[in-house]
Amino acid sequence: MSSTIEPSPPRRVTLRTLEQMARRGEPFACLAAYDATLARWLDRAGVHVLLAGDSGAQLALGFERTIDMPLEVAIAFTAALRRGALNAMVIADMPFMSYQACQAEALRNAGRFMTEGLADAVKIEVDASFAPLVARMTRAGIPVCAHIGLRPQNVGLTGGYRAVGRTAEEAMALLADAKALEEAGAVLLLLEAVPDPVAAAIVEQSGVPVIGIGAGPAPHGQILVAHDLLGLSDTPPRFAEPAAQIGPAIRDAAAAWTRQVSARTLPTDAYTMPATELERFQHLRRTNPPRIAWPNQEQA
Q: Would you tell me which CATH number, out of the four given (3.40.50.360, 3.20.20.60, 1.10.10.10, 3.40.50.300), belongs to the domain 15-250?
């Protein structure tokens, strides 16, 4: 009699997992999401890393800018991903002004993401000038993902979104940022909207896993916003090619439901009463109808 060996359940993805994959040259997949249900399905698909992105300010809360993400909501989104995903690593995206004002406040807020938000790491949008903050967070035991290149929380200074590193001087500054932040203790780097050769140079000099978004194929991991991947965004970025069209499917399903409601064709036998109880109920309605006691207007 032959026995079959049950496959072992997938193991929780950790920073060590990503480091091992990077050393083997095995790319890892990352997606930004904001709720437990979507996190559960993405986790079942084998996505390695989930980011509770501040893009949720736009896609989940309806704001026009990422900087409008409230701190308390960002913590709640992070915890929701952790509750939904059994295996993926969860990174918290610290929102605008939750870490820029002073190091003590940044440390307290990062600690909240780790405890209340159940995060495995926090992401902050930085350059080399934030190296002391990264070092202090690292000393406190908080793993930091340093986000360089295009920093959406800073677009007020640039007048809009644009690629970073298109000049030799900008490219050299990015290399210096990456080196300084890694030396300060950052355990991950995230590059956004960086030309391919610049991203490749940063990956070559880096001793930590590098995640890219609109930064070419060189990074060890790639991240997109799940809404862009699933066809839920009206205007996805140029580097995001939808793999599904869930948005139109939701629209069509909701329209069908609306037509069903309008036509009164919903199921009517979802819950039933025993015939004897139905007869008693009808009798009680005839013999003892309920009376509504309206409040006395003068007493109210």
A: 3.20.20.60
